[in-house]
Design a protein that fits this description.
The chain has 14 helices and 17 strands. The chain is α/β, with parallel strands linked by helices. Strands 3-5-2-1-8-10-11-9 form an 8-stranded mixed beta sheet, sandwiched between helices. Strands 13-14-12-15-17-16 form a 6-stranded antiparallel beta sheet. A 3-stranded mixed beta sheet has the order 4-6-7. The longest helix has 23 residues. Bound molecules: aspartic acid (ASP) and magnesium ion.
């Protein structure tokens, strides 16, 4: 069997949604479709829950009405009268669930309230799409994945109960065995008490990987509006190149250093089960895309990731004493206790330097905590550049004219902390 995942951009309007039909009918094996919410629906739902939690429930209901109208318009453009009226009835039921979730939001339990509201975007989109498949006489079935993916109650970042979910997933396997396409939601699940949860923003890739692992899929394909993975973010650099093949490990490294390619949790279930991942362009489905698997023999171009808006913090001993293992362990504890992730560290005889994300509240707590025993120096608004498989030319090009504060180099990787963002041309 195969798993296809469609993101918000691939279903953003009725035309795009309609164009996915041939991809599905031409699949050569039983197919499970995992779908995100339409376009920017998740952001719209976040605005709704934020208003509701600020006690602006009327404002929230107004925004929900607008969202409902957008979904009805989308369905109306896509479907004929008879399927539109079925889809409308179903959608109205789901929007009643949204209204209830808005009315019962509780600012004291923001994350829980968030999940009851935000999880509905994927229910709306798949509801429309499943009616489109039925209208086209495709034997298919809509599944509410909240009855399958069981999680704990870490709302907004729920942890999957693999055993229970795997048992539940057999229901999907049985439907696929009947020769039907299964269409379901990414990003969401439910607790044992039946409360909805989300798996973290952009989590639909992860859902596709979980289900692929549980059902023994041959591969997962993530359909995007770009032609596979590029060696850098095309929004940041004009001359990126497409990567034809890349290993799981390389994708994990790049995601860790800030490349926004695939949800980082996606890779592990696939790697553990040796399931290939393809990233392909739904606008150009015959093109090859990118294949992600265990081993890759082809040489990589330089792979570039940027983390912007970083803070570089230096802690220096006041009495010029050396930084020893003792100090290091105390320093790490300070970061750990404040839940600050260190993106890069370097330590010298009397100083310790760390590059971290600019989370203002946390940085504000960190500086006095370090200041108790150390002299602290801070550089704000710096950029962490990571180049895997670097060439000297790529490093020169990307750091040209920049003030650099720190540079680390291993056989495969160069990392530079520098001011602002680089405007290299990647030639
Ligand atoms: N709709 C969710 C989001 O935008 C999940 C996803 O797209 O993967 O974060
Ligand atoms: Mg989305």
């Amino acid at each position: 069997m195969l798993v296809y995942k469609f993101g918000g951009a691939s279903i953003a309007d009725a035309g795009r949604m309609a164009a996915l039909l041939p991809l599905i009918t031409e699949a050569k094996e039983p197919l499970l479709v995992v779908m995100s919410a339409l376009g920017k629906t998740t952001n719209a739902l976040e605005a709704i829950v934020n208003a509701a939690c600020k006690d602006q429930k009327e404002e929230a209901m107004g925004l929900a009405k607008k969202l409902e109208q957008q979904h009805l318009d989308h369905a109306m453009k896509l479907l004929n009268d008879s399927y539109y009226s079925k889809a409308r009835n179903a959608l109205q039921g789901h929007f009643e669930a949204l209204a209830l979730a808005i009315q019962t939001t509780d600012p004291k339990h923001y994350d829980r309230s968030y999940d009851q509201v935000v999880s509905l975007g994927e229910i709306f989109s798949t509801c429309i799409f499943s009616h489109w498949l039925l209208q086209n006489n495709l034997a298919s079935e809509w599944i509410d994945i909240r009855n399958v993916i069981r999680t704990d109650d870490t709302f907004r970042d729920a942890v999957v109960d693999w055993d229970q979910s795997q048992k539940n997933a057999q229901e999907i396997g049985a439907i696929l065995n009947q020769g039907k396409v299964v269409i379901t939601q990414g990003f969401i699940g439910a607790t044992a008490d039946g409360l909805s949860v989300t798996l973290g923003r952009e989590g639909s890739d992860y859902t596709a990987a979980i289900l692929a692992a549980m059902l023994g899929a041959a591969s997962v394909t993530i359909w995007k509006d770009v032609e596979g993975l590029q060696n850098a973010d095309p929004k940041q650099f004009p001359n990126t190149v497409k990567i034809n093949e890349i290993s799981y490990n390389e994708v994990i490294e790049m995601a860790f250093y800030g490349a926004q390619i695939i949800h980082p949790k996606t890779i592990k279930p696939l790697q553990n089960n040796g399931i290939r991942l393809y990233v392909k362009c739904f606008l150009n489905p015959t093109r090859e895309g990118t294949m992600i698997q265990q081993e890759v023999t082809a040489a990589y171009p330089p792979l570039i990731a940027l983390k912007e808006n970083q803070v570089l913090i230096q802690a220096t001993t006041r009495d010029f004493s050396f930084i020893t293992e003792d100090n290091l362990s105390a320093l790490y504890s300070i970061f750990h206790d404040l839940k600050i992730k260190i993106n890069l560290i370097q330590n010298a005889a009397i100083s310790f330097v760390a590059c971290i994300d600019n989370r203002e509240d946390r940085v504000a707590a960190l500086i006095p905590a370090l200041g108790e025993n150390y002299k602290v120096t801070v550089n704000e608004k710096v950029t962490l550049l990571t180049i895997r498989h670097y060439t000297p030319e790529a490093v020169d090009d990307l750091t040209k004219g920049r003030q650099t504060f720190l540079r680390q180099e291993t056989r495969k990787t160069v990392q530079v902390v520098m001011d602002g963002s680089p405007v290299g041309s990647l030639q």
